[in-house]
Amino acid sequence: MTPAPLVVNGLVVGAMLFALGLVGILARRNLIVMFLSAELMLQGVSVSLVSWSRHHGDWGGHVLVIFVLTVAACEAAIALVFVLQAFARAGRLDAAAWQSLRESVLPRVVDRELPASDAAVMEFPRLTPAGVEPEHDPDAALEREHV
Q1: Which domains does the chain show, CATH number per domain?
Q2: Average of pLDDT values for 96-125?
Q3: What is the DSSP string of the chain?
């Protein structure tokens, strides 16, 4: 196989990955899907860069891709913190929930209003503290056995 089709194949795969990531960012409002789409776009650029680098016989593109992957890993870790923080505050992963993370002096700019379910506070079950026995009513236990 001649080198020209290899470059074309690499560029086509890179363009498809980039296009899928772009569609994912523009079409979805879920924060996790949006960050995964951004990662997909970075991978598409990386495949294209490696393809061009291989075509020109230069290792510079490969080295740059290693740096891009390092930055993408750091970005994914920071994005995970942001997603967890947004979920903890709003109880959902809708992109509009990021408006609640804004500073209090800045006005809210929302393209669509959030549903009323954002006002609900989530209650998580709690375990009893270690060493403390839960309240126990022996009369209620006897009544349940006889029924």
Answers
A1: 3-100 (1.10.287.3510)
A2: 65
A3: --HHHHHHHHHHHHHHHHHHHHHHHHH--BHHHHHHHHHHHHHHHHHHHHHHHHHHT-SHHHHHHHHHHHHHHHHHHHHHHHHHHHHHHHSS-BGGGGGGGS-TTSPP--SSPPPGGGGPPP----PPPTT-PPP--HHHHHHHHH-
